[in-house]
Write a structure and sequence with these properties.
The protein is an alpha/beta fold. The chain contains 6 helices and 24 strands. A hairpin with a 2-residue loop joins strand 1 and strand 2.
């Protein structure tokens, strides 16, 4: 009986698979047999020829680019029973992609691909000296009804300005112009692209101010204008309007002035990177209202001001806090220790004073804490476990009035570049000299300031080594 049931089940499965397979194959055949308009084929071939060279004629492809032998980097879709090109990727994106010719040109037929949704160029315009190429400024409006994504990536030979006609691509959701040779100011009418969700113009030579029209990007999720030469102040409209923004990177520019208080309106922001600019005026208290922030990077700005102005415990999602080289003064607030998700803390190369809070040891996820190059003082009170866990990623060197107490740390876990506290060192030296005179007669250790001194105690590591030698070899003589 059991065998009969198994056989029945097996027969049922076979019949089902055969039926499903025949249906699928029939559907696939009818789909693949769909024709492609001759004008569409001609437009696609001439467009590709403009980028890869006249030698390419597509003669090895049959029956069409969207049939059984598609071109790598070309995708199509059916409209009214015909194939039309929807995605065109030029450059070595895939292993068998067609490489661009040395003298690339924009063929006018590109703009007749009326269903084109995505257009990208990767490492295609690569010769800025011999074959510099500018983006065509004409005819982009013919793609306005369809184009949603436009990308030019890693094209060192792509020079000139961003065409203002890009502002007519009203359906554009992603505009990515990264690592090219573009220069000049950003067109104000890019603000017309109200459907943009991603704007990345990083790694070019763009200058001028950030247009206040960019404040109209109410659907923008990612804005990256880093690594350019943008100047002027941060426009208040930019922060007031980008209510959906998740990531904002304006680093490595020449931006000046204060951080606007309106920045607190970016309630959804997870990354804010304004590093390597010329911002000043101190930290704004509005930052603490950005409770979704995970990465805050303001380093290398002559900003000044105090850390205590913010209630850091309000920013509990922070994983990265880099405020290094900002001319900050005052002390390190203990509330930073409430940032339990913090992995990286950079407060180095400032003018911070006071003691280092022992509560920093309670940051459970911290993998790097850099406090070097300040005016911090006092004894370090961290456990040996903490020193062992952090190693040199706990950077407190360069604070000449910071020391560690003898006896709490073994030599191998001594904080790098930190000296042993002086009063304890003096006691050890006196005791050491007494033992030497009693038991060895001529064993002398003196301070480096003495003309008779044999060893220098300026380096904390040497001091620790001497202390360890004293413990191991001299104390047992008792």
């Amino acid at each position: 009986m059991r065998g009969f049931r198994n056989l029945s089940y097996f027969v049922f499965v076979i019949i089902f698979l055969l039926h499903f397979g025949v249906w699928c194959n029939g559907d696939t055949e009818s789909t693949m047999a769909a024709p492609m308009e001759k004008n569409e084929i001609n437009a696609l071939y001439s467009t590709i020829q403009g980028f890869v060279g006249k030698w390419w004629n597509g003669s090895d492809l049959y029956p069409d680019p969207c049939g059984w032998t598609p071109i790598q980097g070309v995708s199509c879709d059916l409209f009214d029973g015909f194939w039309y090109v929807t995605d065109l990727n030029i450059g070595p994106i895939h292993d068998n992609s067609l490489s661009c010719a040395p003298n690339v040109e924009f063929n006018p037929n590109l703009y007749t691909l009326k269903h084109l949704k995505s257009l990208s160029f990767f490492n295609c315009f690569v010769s800025p000296r011999h074959h510099p190429t500018s983006i065509s400024t004409e005819s982009w409006e013919f793609l306005a009804s369809s184009l949603e994504s436009l990308e030019f990536r890693s094209n060192s030979g792509l020079i000139g300005q961003i065409p203002s006609t890009f502002g007519r691509l009203i359906k554009l959701q992603s505009l990515v112009l990264v690592e090219n040779g573009l220069y000049g100011e950003m067109p104000r009418n890019l603000g017309n692209l109200v459907n943009l969700q991603r704007l990345s113009l990083a790694g070019n030579k763009l200058n001028g101010e950030i247009p206040d029209t960019f404040g109209g990007f109410t659907q923008l999720l990612i804005c990256d204008l880093s690594r350019n030469s943008l100047s002027g102040v941060l426009p208040k409209a930019l922060f007031g309007g980008l209510v959906s923004l998740l990531k904002l990177d304006l680093s490595y520019n020449k931006l000046q002035g204060k951080i606007p208080e309106e920045i607190s309106r970016l309630k959804n922001l997870t990354l804010l990177d304004l590093s390597n600019n010329k911002l000043s005026g101190g930290l704004t208290k509005s930052l603490q209202e950005m409770t979704c922030l995970e990465e805050l990077v303001l380093s290398n700005n002559p900003m000044g001001g105090f850390l205590e102005i913010l209630d850091w415990q309000n920013m509990r999602k922070l994983t990265t806090l880099d405020l290094s080289n900002m001319n900050l003064t005052g002390g390190i607030p203990g509330s930073i220790a409430d940032l339990k998700k913090l992995r990286f803390l950079g407060l180095n190369d400032n003018k911070l004073t006071g003691q280092i809070p022992k509560s920093l040891e309670n940051l459970p996820n911290a993998s790097a804490i850099y406090l070097y190059g300040n005016n911090l003082t006092g004894e370090l009170q961290f456990s040996e476990w903490f020193y062992g866990k952090m190693g040199r990623r706990f950077g407190v060197w360069g604070n000449k009035n910071v020391c560690y107490p003898f006896g709490l740390v073994s030599t191998r876990n001594v904080p790098f570049g930190v000296k042993i506290c002086q009063q304890e060192l003096n006691f050890i030296i006196d005791l050491d000299e007494t033992k030497s005179k009693l038991d060895h007669g001529n064993f002398v250790i003196q301070d480096s300031n003495s003309s008779m001194g044999y060893l220098s105690y300026d380096n904390g590591i040497w001091r620790s080594l001497i202390v360890e030698l004293f413990i191991v070899f001299l104390l047992p003589l008792n």
